[in-house]
Every structure is written in structure tokens, then in C-alpha cells.
Specification:
single chain; alpha/beta; Rossmann fold; five-stranded parallel β-sheet; 15 helices; elongated; binds adenosine monophosphate; binds zinc ion
Length: 452
């Protein structure tokens, strides 16, 4: 299995630390507002990763975090806490906001038929452990205190710039000087924030006799250390995480424990919508509710995402979503053939699909292999299950056999056609269509297909 590793900027053969327990960590959502469809692209690709690993025989232990504290509106320790902002906007407590959007996120996660993570960890459940990590960093001399919080001195971590190929001199030249002038280096970041006297911050914990809360990056470092143990095999997130969030997670873990954080780093690219960056002001922010109103399901969207590659920047349009919906319907109708004809041997197709997936998760290539096969083959239950294991498109469950009553009508219609009673045949065909089934006639009889 080959994966593009951001660490080396190369496609590498995946070698697990322990095949019985491949440790995967995926940075999760900040639960301060509804997640839009763009936010879910990464989780769909990481679902494909988990599924591909499992199909290769690995046992996957995947941890997903929920950021319910400490993520500021700017990645660089500036701006408001996203959670506090969400609470003010909605006149709710931060805890209520976290609960509501966590539930909404998980509802969509499950509607997308994603493999349930082994653990879902809320940042606020790891505050004591966060403090323990801050203590270690402090003891090892990486931190300094400022009025804003405890900062990580990145000049003491010589490999700081390596992961993101940062040009620190260039960063320095472009840095804002009006924010926290006590910072020693532009790239220094808060591991723990102090609450100012004038600050209204609902989530706060006492640490060293003062009230404060963890910096954003700390939760991932802590949860990985506590629940998986560094080094992990694969760490995933959006490309926007490379220069700040992941760079800082690495600094925290590797400085504290002297061990590599992860052997492979996977980053998904962004999607645009109708050629524009997703933005509230442009009005192109879509949620699953919006897709549903236009007749598209979670599975249609998942199909659209999987038609692309996780590293490609992609443009979303309803035209393309419609094409994805059609392709999914084609796959379901292929699956429906298992009720109607004898299965053919699809082992070579299965191998071809696996080769594509093992080639840096080329799901688009895998779909091309399936497209080639579906017009001349009939799957058995096992092959349909393989497709579901690979892509999680819920094909097996969404392709039930038709009722005996419908089968009888299909036989009757064939008989009527044979007897050239076209009025009766057409009436029966219309009745069958009302049940969501269309009949395709060919020289060797007719087959039924789902209309939607
Ligand atoms: P946000 O809540 O806007 O900070 O987004 C949370 C995460 O969702 C980001 O860190 C990105 O990794 C991901 N994300 C946001 N917008 C997009 C997009 N247009 N396409 C893909 N991923 C996105
Ligand atoms: Zn993270």
C-alpha cells in the first residue's frame, strides 16, 4: 500500500509499526457552528484510508478528537475563542454549543456511513493530561511566560521549520508586531492561555494558581500521547494544518517525549464551490440540509468526494454532484443484477480496484475499473459487500430485492407483450414504475432497475 507522505513529500510504501494495531489519528472538528460539506471532505477521505487499511488486513485503531475549547478564530493565537464566539452568537453556554454541534457533526458522520472511530475524544476531557504535558515542556525548558499565556520557544526546537518547510526569516518579515510583543520569535505559540481580568471566557481551569485554558494544538498532542502513544502510524488533517497546527503538535510531542509523533502524514486539499472559496459572504456555504432540499443524499456527496483524489484541489458544482448521483445509481443497479442473473467471476476486477486503492488511495481509478466491469458482469453478494467495505456507499443495504407482487407483475407484463397486448403491457409497466422500478428490455428478456 503506497501513500503520499507530507513528511518526505514522497509517495512511500506504507510500513506499519505493528500490523495488529495500526494507529491513526485524524484532527477533528471545532464544534462552534454547523460543519459545511467542505469540512466533511477530509473525513470522507480518512474513511477511505481506514477502509483501505482494513482491506489490506490491518487492524486499525483510529482516534478522532472534538475541539470544544481553545481554538481561536486565527490559527496564530489571535482573535476570539471559536467556542466562546459561538456561544455569544447563540445566547447559549459554551457547553450547550459544544453539545449541539458535536451531535450534529456525529449525525452527519454516521449518515455518511463512515467507519466508527475506535475512540472519539473531547478536548475538555483531557485538561488534566494537558497540564501534565505543559509541565513536561516546562521542566525541559521549552516554555516562557507572557501576560497572554505560556509560550513555546520555537528557537529551542531546532527542527521546528522542517515539517512545513517554513522560511522563518520570511515569516518574521511579514509578521504582525502589534500582537503579543512579549513573544520571542514569530513562530512561538501558546501552549496554555491565561485569562485576562477583562476577559469573559466561560471555559477555564486553574493551573498554577491562575485561570486559563489550553492552546489549540495541545489537545491533539495530549490525546495522541494518552490514547495511542507516539509514534503513531498515520496522522491526517487538512492542508491548512501543515504550517501551524501540525507543526506545533509535532513540536509539543517531540520536545516533551523525545519521540517522533507520526511516521506518515496525510493532508487533504480544499474544495471550491463554483470556482470560489467557500465563504459566507459569497453565499456558497452548503450544508447537507441544502443538498437534501435539492434531492441529493449524503451518499451522493460521498460519491462525489471519492471521485476525486485527497490531494487535489477540487471544484464542486451541482452538475458534478448530479453526475456522481447517477454513477451511484448505476452501481446500485449493477448490484441489483445479483437478484436477477447468475454471477460472473469478478476476482480480477476486485484485484484491479485494490491496486488502485493501494496506489495512494486512487478511488477515481478504482471507480474507472468498476465502470469498465459493470456492463458485462453480474456481481454476487460478496462482491457487493467488497464494494461497500471499500467505499462505504451503502450499496448492499440500498439495493433490496423487489417484492413477489412486483415480480409477478413483471412476468405478467412479459406475457402481455408476447401476446401483443400492448395496452395491458404498458399499464403494467406504469404500475411497476410507481414502485420505483423501471424495466429494461433487451433481446434476452428484460431486467429491472431502480429509478432512484
Ligand atoms: P473551519 O471550521 O472553517 O476552521 O474548518 C475546519 C477544517 O475543515 C479546516 O481546518 C479544514 O481542514 C477543513 N475545511 C474547511 N474548508 C474546507 C474546504 N473548502 N475544503 C476542504 N476542507 C475544508
Ligand atoms: Zn490536531
Amino acid at each position: 500500500m503506497k501513500l503520499y507522505n507530507t513528511l518526505s513529500r514522497n509517495i512511500e510504501e506504507f510500513k506499519p509499526i505493528d500490523a495488529e494495531r495500526v494507529k491513526v489519528y485524524t484532527c477533528g472538528p471545532t464544534v462552534y457552528s454547523f460543519a459545511h460539506v467542505g469540512n466533511f471532505t477530509s473525513y470522507i477521505y480518512w474513511d477511505l484510508l481506514v477502509r483501505t487499511l482494513a482491506l489490506n488486513g490491518y487492524k486499525v485503531e483510529r482516534v478522532l478528537n472534538i475541539t470544544d475549547v481553545g481554538h481561536l478564530t486565527s490559527d496564530a493565537d489571535e482573535g476570539e475563542d471559536k467556542m466562546e464566539k459561538g456561544a455569544k452568537r447563540e445566547g447559549k453556554t459554551v457547553w450547550e454549543v459544544a453539545e449541539m454541534y458535536t451531535n450534529d457533526y456525529l449525525k452527519n458522520f454516521r449518515a455518511l456511513n463512515m467507519v466508527e472511530p475506535s475512540r472519539i475524544c473531547r478536548a475538555t476531557d483531557f485538561i488534566k493530561e494537558d497540564m501534565a504535558l505543559v509541565d513536561v515542556l516546562e521542566e525541559k525548558g521549552y516554555l516562557y511566560d507572557t501576560t497572554d499565556g505560556l509560550y513555546f520557544d520555537t528557537s529551542k526546537f531546532p527542527t521546528y521549520a522542517d515539517f512545513a518547510h517554513l522560511d522563518l526569516d520570511h515569516l518574521k518579515a511579514g509578521a504582525r508586531v502589534d500582537f503579543n510583543s512579549e513573544k520571542k520569535n514569530v513562530s512561538d505559540f501558546a501552549v496554555w492561555k491565561w485569562i485576562r481580568d477583562d476577559e469573559d471566557h466561560a471555559m477555564q481551569w486553574e493551573y498554577r494558581g491562575r485561570m486559563g485554558y489550553p492552546g489549540w494544538h495541545l489537545e491533539c498532542a495530549t490525546i495522541i500521547h494518552e490514547k495511542l502513544g507516539e509514534p503513531i502510524d498515520i496522522h491526517c488533517g487538512g492542508v491548512d494544518h501543515i504550517p501551524v497546527h501540525h507543526t506545533n503538535e509535532i513540536a509539543e510531542i517531540e520536545a516533551a517525549y523525545g519521540k517522533k509523533m507520526a511516521n506518515y502524514w496525510l493532508h487533504n486539499n480544499f474544495i471550491t464551490i463554483d470556482g470560489e472559496k467557500i465563504s459566507k459572504s459569497i453565499g456558497n456555504v452548503y450544508y447537507f440540509e441544502d443538498l437534501k432540499e435539492r434531492g441529493y443524499s449524503h451518499m451522493d456527496y460521498k460519491m462525489w468526494v471519492l471521485q476525486g483524489h485527497f490531494q487535489s484541489e477540487r471544484n464542486f458544482s451541482f452538475n458534478d454532484l448530479n453526475a456522481a448521483k447517477q454513477r451511484l445509481l448505476n452501481y446500485r443497479n449493477f448490484a441489483a443484477l445479483r437478484w436477477q442473473k447468475d454471477a460472473t467471476d469478478l476476482n480480477s476486477v476486485r484485484d484491479a480496484v485494490m491496486r488502485q486503492l493501494n496506489n495512494n488511495m486512487n478511488s477515481a481509478g478504482a471507480f474507472a475499473e468498476i465502470d469498465k466491469a459493470i456492463n458485462v458482469n453480474v456481481p454476487d453478494e460478496e462482491f457487493v459487500k467488497f464494494l461497500d467495505d471499500a467505499f462505504g456507499l451503502g450499496i448492499l443495504d440500498s439495493t433490496p430485492d423487489i417484492s413477489d407482487d412486483l415480480k409477478e407483475k413483471i412476468t405478467e407484463r412479459a406475457k402481455a407483450k408476447n401476446e401483443r397486448d400492448f395496452v395491458k403491457a404498458d399499464t403494467l409497466r406504469d404500475e411497476i414504475a410507481r414502485e420505483g422500478i423501471v424495466l429494461l428490455d433487451s433481446v434476452d428478456g428484460s431486467i429491472w432497475q431502480y429509478i432512484k
